[in-house]
Amino acid sequence: MFDLKNKVAIVTGARRGMGRTHALTLAKAGAKVIVSDISLEGCEKVVKEIKKDGGEGLALKCDVTKKQEIEQMVKKTVEKWGKIDILVNNAGIVEFKPFLELTEQDWDKTLDINLKGYFLCAQAAAKEMAKKKSGVIVNIASVAMGQQGIGFPNIVHYCASKGGIVGMTEALALEMAAYNIRVNAIAPGMIDTPMVDPVMKDPQQKKGILARVPMHRMADPQEVSNLVLFLVSDGSSYMTGSTVVVDGGWLAG
Ligand code: NAP
What we know:
By secondary structure, the protein is of the alpha/beta class. The protein has a single domain (8-246), classed as 3-Layer(aba) Sandwich (Rossmann fold), CATH 3.40.50. The chain contains eight helices and seven strands, in the order βαβαβαβαβαβαααβ. A seven-stranded parallel β-sheet has the order 3-2-1-4-5-6-7, sandwiched between helices. Helix 3 (67-81) packs parallel to helix 4. The longest helix is centred in the middle third of the chain and has 28 residues, at 104-131. It binds NADP nicotinamide-adenine-dinucleotide phosphate (NAP). NADP nicotinamide-adenine-dinucleotide phosphate binds at residues 12-13, 15-19, 37-39, 63-65, 90-93, 113, 117, 140, 142, 188, 190-191, 193-196. NADP nicotinamide-adenine-dinucleotide phosphate is lined by residues 12-13, 15-19, 37-39, 63-65, 90-93, 113, 117, 140, 142, 188, 190-191, 193-196.
């Protein structure tokens, strides 16, 4: 059920953090994986790890704010492996700043990467998926998505982008169902990646955050990748338009 043999996957922001473990996990399940990131540095290393495990991977530079680079990535994927079955929209940034100091440039930078980038990648991949009437898209949101999620101070723009991803996922799922393309989102809690180092290296902040998480620990990135694997596999064949939380009980607390 979780076998991805003969599947072709693209993971964005895959040179480190969760993107790296998503790429390794999908490759281990048999998928051929495009390991893409804003810089090639690190992507090649992930591909080496994939190949060491007996899998297939290809490193491609792709800045998700650049439509042309996304189109090139899709073109090169199709040239190499003939199709795209899976897209994991993962690339993202978080930059901390009090709201009253937030500039239009700060806002645009975060929204361009975290939300517009997801749109551009989803559209480019979906155009290929639609041709063969089959595909799966997973969008990485966050518990900072609002509504049933949590708001965080000093990252208003990040929270807006993550809420946007959830809305986009639902609307996209409706439209893409006609093409047999499933679209779901994941809302991770506190995951041990370089992104959260600045916060979690401060003992005071770390203590405050983990006190709110019933499991009192961060997740290993692999614990999110396991969910990615489920959502891109036939195991989740009746799921589309959902946002699945993986947060150690944070939102339930
Ligand atoms: P990470 O370790 O910082 O990895 C993110 C990757 O995305 C980095 O390699 C980064 O490159 C890349 N990236 C940044 N801008 C890009 C662009 N324009 N085009 C392509 N790639 C770009 O972060 P992570 O924690 O693994 O986060 C992965 C996703 O999970 C993000 O969407 C994040 O918002 C989400 N998330 C994380 C947590 C958490 O606790 N870690 C919780 C909830 C949601 P650079 O290193 O050059 O910036």
